[in-house]
Amino acid sequence: MANNCTRVRHAAWSVSAVALLGLLTACGGGGDSAGGPSTLSGTAAPATGGSASGSASPAPSATPTGGATDGTAGAGTSSGGTPSEAVSASGSVSTRCHTSELRASVGRDNPGAGQENFPIVLTNTSSHSCTLRGYPGAAFRSAAGKQLGPDPKRSSGSPDTVTLTPGASAWAGLSFSNPEVSEAKAATPASLLVTPPDERDALTVKWPGGQVPVSGNSSSVFLTVFAPGTGA
């Protein structure tokens, strides 16, 4: 049953991203002229586009500090008692998760209908519970530290406050059209910068996903709000 639910969730994710890209094309937004905050080289900017109430926007001029922390975090528990699961709560009880308390990673691609879908995962490495709410900031970066492509856009969604116990994780979806399908100009990033909601400092993660669209037709990258778990 869990595997069936996972496939349904991944299918819904892919369909949502395809529908958004269709709307952009219908409105003449196939290119990357959407206005957004300018991005300094090597910074993780907030995602552009519509945002739901309560979502977070990291400052575009913030300079990331180092890479993702290493080490193994202890197992967390959800309301159901499952290790490494986060708890979604309607109200914020714990302190907001700070960049220094988190480890970032990029999960396995779940492709479909010409789309590439990666979960961006943040794991609580501290000894206390903390919360995430809203969208991450994200930016692809070359080996030389230059940002590749425009700032990602936000898929529509209603943010929930996700409480992370020590060792627990939350994930946000990162989706884009496969450049070989869309014929967008592509590049292969060396890393992905991930900025937690309401934080200025970013975490640096090695990018495992190969080429990404950086300009031209269907070159937009989309982000979803954080949800409990790892997106696997």
From TrEMBL:
Residues 97-213 form the DUF4232 domain. It holds the Pfam family DUF4232. Residues 1-28 form the signal peptide. Residues 35-72 have a biased composition (Low complexity). Residues 32-98, 142-166 are annotated as: Disordered. Keywords: Signal. Residues 85-97, 155-166 have a biased composition (Polar residues). The keyword Iron-sulfur does not apply. This is DUF4232 domain-containing protein.
